Amino acid sequence: MTSLKNVLLAFCITWVITPALAQQKPSASVDQKIEALISQMTIEEKAGQLNIVVGETINTGPTMHTAESKKFDEQIRAGKLTGLFNVYGAAYTKRLQKIAVEESRLHIPLLFGADIIHGFKTVTPIPLGEAASWDLDLIRRSAQMAAREATSAGINLNFAPMMDISRDPRWGRISEGAGEDTYLGSRIAEARVKGFQGDKLSDPATMAACLKHFAAYGAAEAGRDYNTADISERVLQEIYLPPFKAAIDAGAATVMPSFNELDGVPATANRHLLQDILRKQWNFNGAVISDYGAVGEMINHGSSADGSKAVIHSLEAGTDMDMMSYLYISKIPELVKAGSLDVKYVDAAVRRILKLKFDLGLFDNAYLYSDEVREKKEVRSKENIALAREVARKSMVLLKNDNGLLPLRSSYKKIAVIGPLADNKEDMNGSWSFFGEATHPVSVLQGIKARVPASTEVVYHPGCNLFDNSRDKMTEAMTTAQGADLTLLVVGESAVMNGEAASRADIGLPGVQEDLVKMISKSGKPVVVVLLNGRPLTMEWLDQNVPAILETWTLGSEAGNAVADVLFGDYNPSGKLPVTFPRHVGQIPIYYNHKNTGRPYSGTNNEPASDRVYVSKYRDIKNTPLYPFGYGLSYTTFTYSEVTLNKATMKNGEQIEATVTVTNNGNYDGEEVVQLYLHDLVGSVTRPVKELKGFQKVMIRKGEAKKITFTITDKELTFLRGDMTWGTEPGMFEVLVGTNSDAVKKKSFELVK
Ligand code: BGC
Q1: 60 CB less than 6 Å from ligand 1?
Q2: Which residues neighbour 186 within 8 Å (Cβ) at sequence distance 6 or greater?
């Protein structure tokens, strides 16, 4: 009934009330409808279509609202807003939409944007955690669920996926992306876009994706948020851009330029990024939406003298929409009237925004995304909670498990759960989760209590605080641990310690938590560390002294239940690190696909001592990471056969098959992520020591052996050659296959002319 009403209402709005459209036949093409609308718009209305502002409920940047600017109803009525973001609720968005389509002069519907980074009300693990699942279909399904929930509450434009590659764990926003690797990041970017957008943007359960942050935001110098990125064109093109290209090829609707400058020009007005690459090379026709206040920040950057110049620079470079600078709306009319800004730039931007609104189906039914019935049914539905638990289980990475301490045996009579994050719900939602309610998540303590057998008692102590260095509670915590058979130590970062504006110079366990672990480790009872964090941590002491460590990132709504699933063996962990864990902050940037240098250090100490001096290494610490990229254990053990190739040479256009047999010779069924790396030995420019080129996540039953085959084609051998063209070069390649980037079996072949 409601939907029939909606359809009728929408029909009236579109074909009767909207004057520009009413003059046309329904059969007019979308382009014709857009041109008709543009021809009727005043310059003020055009500027309005390029202006999006944050609602009042959730702030994701500096507060820029004035009492005047908060009068959203009035602004909508006057055609001064193209949409709002970070507001939600079917009823609320419907009310605002009604003003737009019934009371504004041209009846143009609103966009409702939001940062749905890892779930809406049903919160899934932070993106870095999901990336650790290496399960592309799971990641797609997780994004799809987020879209189903968020769209029912009115949201039609998602400022996600965040897909910045980062090699610097000091940078807090590493938690929002897929880690350090371009290949894995590209596949995950595609999966997320497909999940958010589905097959059709006008499907009410899908929303437009916004690829962010374009580009090289993750290369912020010294890992300090918003800082300058200074990288070569080669590194930009090879490392940072491919996930964006992959996501655009997957159909992404919009792009957000990053806050940083690149080669001296802020991304918001960077023609090389926005024109040469995005529009010309990649043929991207979608809308470009500035980051929060980024147009105005051109002044601080020192690249625009004032607000007017910032508008001209950004708009002419191709940033179509101004988020929260209030500059397009305030300056465009006067600039055009004064002849300082050609209206063709304004029209081009308006055209892309209107096209997005058409593609979303808003001109057919402005209320498509605000559906109270669907909202009630969809938000935090049983199925969604079950999926959140599945994603959470699969995102965890088992970092250490001496003598099979895990899974926990049911014979423990008393388990101590200790740590400042053990009884915590709110932080389970993680950074960039503004919609998840603080009271919803299942804490680790709750999850453990719900899972232990009736014969096991669970005792709890916080041990210490997250935000101060007080040791007052430690002795009591020690007594709790000593009285139990085993301790689960739940330590890590609070959600606000990672994410935006949350760079850290010291990436160890915050506060006195490491001291707590050291103390409890002396309790004489086994200790399992359950880590919660949004970035790699430096924790060499833990690795050397604690028998079992489970990396859980931040798992979302079902955190505690999922942790219990893994600790008690209801799910055998299968996650692999999407990012390198350094031993020491001084090693940063540290990443697996580095170059060899002219004086590589083998690390084996097999060479004469004199040859170990003038090599690329540290005097005080090892070169190697604490845990390499791709690393993660299972409760079972997988052994790899040697790699076999079906031929020793290949020509362009041909392919080679690389095969390994992986055997599960442990005691549990388990999933393994079999990883394929390639090393191009000699090139017109040097190549990394290895690069991920494929992976397969497979279930291998206890006692079973599985043959895994990878096909290598020109695509896998292509790189940005010395002359800056993409292609292959003849020569020797190593094929490396294994369980992580460090443990690989090797075989070589030659690419011949
Ligand atoms: C972030 C973006 C986000 C925007 C809107 C900015 O501070 O950098 O990623 O989409 O706020 O919330």
Answers
A1: yes
A2: 242, 243, 245, 246, 247
